[in-house]
Amino acid sequence: MVYGSQQYAVRIQLDPNQLATRGIALTDVEQAVGNANVNLPTGTLYGRERATSVMATGQLNDAKAYAPMVVAYRNGAPVRLEQIGRVFDSVQNDKVAAWYNGTRGVVLAVQRQPGTNTIEVVNAIRTILPSFQAQLPPSITLSILYDRSQSIRESVRDVQFTLLSALILVVLVIFVFLRSAFGDVHPEPRAADVDRRHVRGDVLCSATASTTCR
């Protein structure tokens, strides 16, 4: 989609006072402009093997050609278009325009097809932008006005971070649970075992009334 594009046209601004003074209606001017600016075939040239259309060269291409156009005759004198108004080069619709950072420009909006990936489309566009810029005149700069994939990329990063955090928390919970369960299955140490841990010496024996141990 193209926004802010302009197509060339010649604009005519008529002076109502001049029209009233000479007794010329707006329809008279419209008809005169249409008759003087024709681009229609004037006939056909028939040959032995082919037929060729002959075109009239009466189309006017700029404001300079429209200005001396005769609109009507008053008192035997021609009334030209430049005498009853202003003729200048312009565009078809001068009420539509586009700006980028305060500079006039043309906005090209690229929209993805249904069922396609937005990020892939944007990546492909960014890849070919340098080749487009190389073909443009030096006075024209190609810039990115809005990139919808930025918010989508951030959403994807948030989802990935959330999944990674959830995975880490699940692993930690499982580790703590297994550690607690593994600690509960060990029986408590017996009293004799506790006593043996505190014995220091080279020989460990069962002491009786008739036996001396070191």
How many strands appear in the DSSP assignment? 10
Give the spatial strand order of the biggest sheet: 1-10
Q: What's the alpha carbon Rg, rounded to whole Å? A: 46 Å
Q: What's the helix count?
A: 7
**What low-confidence regions span 5 or more consecutive residues with pLDDT below 50?**
202-214
Helix content: 40-55%
**CATH uppermost class of the domain at 7-104:** Alpha Beta
Fourth-level CATH superfamily of the domain at 7-104: Multidrug efflux transporter AcrB TolC docking domain, DN and DC subdomains
Mean pLDDT figure: 80
Helix-strand topology string? EEHHEEHEEHEEEEHHH
CATH architecture of the domain at 7-104: 2-Layer Sandwich
C-alpha end-to-end distance? 101 Å
Q: Please give the largest β-sheet.
A: 2 strands, antiparallel
- The percent range for strand residues is 15-25%
- The gross shape turns out to be elongated
Q: Which structural class should the secondary elements be placed in?
A: alpha+beta
CATH structural fold name of the domain at 7-104: Multidrug efflux transporter AcrB TolC docking domain, DN and DC subdomains
